[in-house]
Amino acid sequence: PRLANQIAAGEVVERPASVVKEIVENAIDAGGRRIEIELESGGTRLIRVRDDGCGIGETDLPLALSRHATSKIASLDDLEDVASLGFRGEALASISAVSRLELISNAADDPSGGWRVVAEGREMAPRVTPAPHPRGTSVLVRDLFFNTPARRKFLRTEKTEFGHVEEAFRRLALSRFDITWLLRHNQKVVHQLPAAADDQRGHERRIAALLGKRFIDESLHLDIEASGLRLWGWVGLPTHSRAQADQQYFFVNGRVVRDRLVAHAIRQAYRDVLFHGRHPVFVLYLELDPRVVDVNVHPTKHEVRFRDGRLVHDFLFSSLHRALAEVRPNHQGA
Ligand code: ADP
Ligand code: MG
């Protein structure tokens, strides 16, 4: 089982950033409203995520580390409208197979309550010991890949690994404006984001904090709804510099997505209205009935499958086209 676990671990655990993503998604699923992430050495020495969510009770704590133990699907029917970020029940098991993992949690309001389990590279006799913790959960991942030297070799410099973590953090913080976020690296606060007001100004403040004020200053805000689809967010105007070319964030029902159909629709609209050769920059949110989209095609690749791809493509294209054409009124296109 040890080998199987380590092989499977490769699927979700590629580098510190993927560990952060999985653990933070759990914290979000648990209803955390304040999530603190702390890293040492780009996350290779330590990743610590603390949330104030529902917590895990004493008896469930060792289960959380076992493969295919998920609390998120009660029945097969739930699969249809699973709204939570993950449901595979193997992230923690996979991470614990390739690191020294510690889970401290408290599902009750008594702050002197709380329990801890430790797992080390799968050499686990999950012993549960009392450990005070406020309501919520702390996950500590130390020495990632300590027992898999081949994998460890693929880790890059501390700076590069932290860069990937920060990018994962941006996506997460852009997906939940209502959560208070803290990101610390080597004892320094990198991002401190209070929960944002649920309005355009609140959202823009957070985006400016994450992507720079220029992003907002040189973007167009849009919010368009048609045939059960809603597209809202910000698209960059042609003043955006090349340096910002990688600022492309697209969320489907709150989940970050990289999708060819989506990319194509955006590129087409851009190309049609704006200058050629411009890289679109955007933070966009597509909302639609969860039953017509499958976001769990692959555990880590950010793929989606729309039931009616044509409809989504045309909606994205026409919404963006309309919005962009408004700010370039001399454009003669469709
Ligand atoms: P999945 O998220 O796919 O269910 P994981 O391996 O990521 O699988 O987590 C296993 C289980 O551990 C979850 O289903 C959940 O019950 C519990 N869990 C993990 N992290 C947290 C957390 N931060 N707060 C509460 N429960 C958690
Ligand atoms: Mg999970």
UniProtKB/TrEMBL annotation:
Instruction: Give a yes or no for keyword Hydrolase in this entry.
Output: yes
Domain DNA mismatch repair protein S5, by residue range, is: 207-325
From the UniProt record, which GO molecular function terms apply? endonuclease activity
What are the entry keywords?
DNA damage, DNA repair, Endonuclease, Hydrolase, Nuclease
Instruction: Decide whether keyword Hydrolase is in the record.
Output: yes
Which family is it part of? Belongs to the DNA mismatch repair MutL/HexB family.
UniProt function note: This protein is involved in the repair of mismatches in DNA. It is required for dam-dependent methyl-directed DNA mismatch repair. May act as a 'molecular matchmaker', a protein that promotes the formation of a stable complex between two or more DNA-binding proteins in an ATP-dependent manner without itself being part of a final effector complex.
Name under which the protein is recorded: DNA mismatch repair protein MutL
Gene name linked to the record: mutL
